[in-house]
Amino acid sequence: MKKIKRGIIVILLALIIFPSLSAQETEFNCVISNSEDWKDVYSSLHYANLLGVEGNFLVSTGHGNVILNEISKKKKVRVITSERQPYIFNYPPMIEDRGFAGADEITTDNANLELIRELPEINNFIIVDDSYGFSAMAVAPYATLTESWVFFSNERNIFEIDSILSRRNIEKIIIYGYVDQEVRETLSKYNPEIINNEDKFKDNIEITEKFIEIKPSKQIILTNGEFIETEIMKGKEPVLFTGRENVPEQIREYLKNSDIEVGVLIGNELVGAATNIRRSAGISVIVKFARGARSQAGGVAAVEGLDLFPLPTPYLELRLNSVKYNQVNSQLEVTYKSNSNIPAYFKGTITIISGEERSKVGDIDPIFIAPGDFKTISYSTNITKVQNLQAEVYTLYGQTSSALDRILQKRVNISLVNVIDRCDLSERDIKYVKYNKQKNSFIIKIKNSKDVDCWVDVELNNVIIGFTETILGTEGSTRIPKGKSKKIYIEEELTDDDLEKNPFVDLTTYSGERENSLVHVLKGRFPLKVEFLTTLAIISIILAIVIIILIIIFFIIKKREEEF
Question: Does 411 share its domain with 381?
């Protein structure tokens, strides 16, 4: 009996002791992300911050050894490794060989959807689109401060996210920035707060204000939202976007009217914008652009760049193609070329220099330009002295009309031309504007009633897609021979709900005899007709029906002949 009692006591002690030993073995106080996918890196750092442990990430295979030089050997490290895109295979043994207290590894297929399972107490969530890295960076400090998990959503994974949310005791959900319509509709049952001003800088200010309401701060982090850095992710201060070159007016005015006194700039490429902030907003700026070297490479330790993980960002570049003065109609023609892979907006100020005389022309509102397109803006101006004409071009441009954060600045000679352009379209030349559901495209039929060949570029303004208004345009101009008609297509998928919201469309055409100088502008509002099938599809269906009828008739006749 005594032996049985002793046995029971031993078993009970084992049950008490061994779980605690097992828990000790899996404890960690440092996380290292081992992935080439930015979403894994972000999620791993955010996971570490929510747990209150140190977070790090690899930026290359060789970085695996270097980063260990800055981590205390007393740390127990958890490596979060991408199943498909790791920098280093079997990383934990390398860490242990360097004398660390311990190392374990989690392998994930999608860290963003999987790590949240290890945080069962998290009931606040922020939803961003997985295509916009800057949205994720804008919300990072607020997410850490409010213990909110950041989900990267799209129309494909939103049902899996919804499945995770449905098992939580939801306290608050914020949808930040642009997301797919299906995402908003799926999450509407949770009554989310929506932050979407169709302007990344206005959205950024709104989330910053929410941060400061909870944790007043006189210091902020300044960045451009194009990379991940550990200090940005920690949530000690809110993040404000500076823009790459020009400081957007929204940010400048916010800083002027706020209690913020110090900005910590992360990234030496942004020094110019930070200088503008200091001058225009009156705050002090500290630049964090390097760190002490972690690997000794000689007698003196070199300075080492910051660990920055790049985010996918759209390529944005505007080039000045030409500046011409047309003496026939006294117009200055300024032609831009977009080398961007996304639509952009620009707003120019041009100083005309004629000897000692100076005059200015410019744009009142930002102007849309499609990727890879040319855009000519004509300004009426009477220049009396045309010898040695020059132009100083100062043009702001950016991804949206209210976020012109880049600068094109150039001084060029003005070419003299004498051109009478006869390609001036009228509303009667626009035969129709349709949307074809089979092709998922707008179709604009235009007739060239002039006796010269014309080049035409088309824009559709204020088209409502989902919950936002947008501008759609052709990428490049279309040649329409004299006296002929041509259909111009703009591909864009619209739902039935979108089509109901757009019974009319605002059409803008740019036309001209020269492909890269479309100097005539026509604006009009047209009814939008909806086609379900293409003409070819309709003909094919009719032929198929005719063939079926003929086959039926054939069999009927054959059957009657057999009966007789």
Answer: yes
Give the residue, 227 or 17, on which the prediction is more confident: 227
Between CA 204 and CA 207, with CA 206 as vertex, the angle to 5 degrees is 70
State the total domains in the chain. Answer: 3
DSSP states of 208-223? HHHHHHHS--SEEEEE
- Strands (DSSP E) found in 133-249: 148-153, 172-176, 193-195, 219-223, 227-228, 239-241
Q: Which two tokens stand for residue 103?
A: 């190392």
> How far is residue 152's CA from residue 330's CA, in Å, rounded to a whole number?
53
Band (183; pLDDT cuts 50, 70, 90): very high
Cα–Cα distance, 33 to 88 (Å, whole number): 10
How far apart CA 474 and CA 496 sit, in angstroms, is 23
pTM over 0.85: no
Edge-to-edge strand list for the sheet holding 148-153: 148-153, 124-129, 172-176, 193-195
Report the distance separating Cα 400 and Cα 381, nearest Å: 29
CA distance 33 to 41: 6
Residue 357, beta-bridge partner list: 354
433 within a domain of the structure (yes/no) = yes
Within-domain flag for 132: no
Residues β-bridged to residue 520: 511
How many residues are given for the chain? 564
- Tens digit of each residue's pLDDT (9 = 90 or more) over 124-165: 999 999 988 999 999 999 999 999 999 999 999 999 999 999
Q: In the structure, what pLDDT confidence band is assigned to residue 363 with cuts at 50, 70 and 90? A: very high
By the 10 Å C-beta count (0-12 exposed, 13-18 middle, 19+ buried), 354 is classed as: middle
User: For the segment 37-54, what is each residue's pLDDT rounded down to a tens digit?
Assistant: 999 999 999 999 999 999
Are 523 and 460 within one domain? yes
Claim to verify: residue 562 and residue 517 sit in the same structural domain: no
Average pLDDT estimate for 277-292: 76
CATH number at residue 444: 2.60.40.10
Question: Cβ–Cβ contacts within 10 Å for residue 337, how many?
Answer: 17
Give dist(CA 542, CA 334) in Å, integer: 51
Residue 501 maps to a domain: yes
Same domain, 509 and 550: no
| Average pLDDT, integer, range 219-229 | 91
* Residue that is written with structure tokens 């030349």 in the block: 429
Q: Is residue 207 part of a domain?
A: no
Question: In terms of domains, do 553 and 524 share one?
Answer: no
**Whole-number Å distance between alpha carbons of 210 and 256:** 18
Interior angle at CA 348, CA 344 and CA 352, nearest 5:
150
Same-domain status, 431 and 528: yes
CA-closest candidate to residue 327, choices 393, 389, 392, 394: 389
Q: Annotate 24-60 with DSSP letters as a single string.
A: HHH--SEEEEE-S-HHHHHHHHHHHHHHT-EEEE-SS
Q: Looking at the structure, do residues 509 and 446 belong to the same domain, yes or no?
A: yes
Domain that holds residue 561: 537-564
The backbone torsions φ and ψ at residue 433, rounded to the nearest 5 degrees and listed phi first, read: -125, 120
Partner residues linked to 362 by β-bridges: 349
- Contact, 331 vs 361, CB < 8 A? no
State the DSSP H helix or E strand holding residue 134, giving kind and residue range, or none if neither: helix 133-145
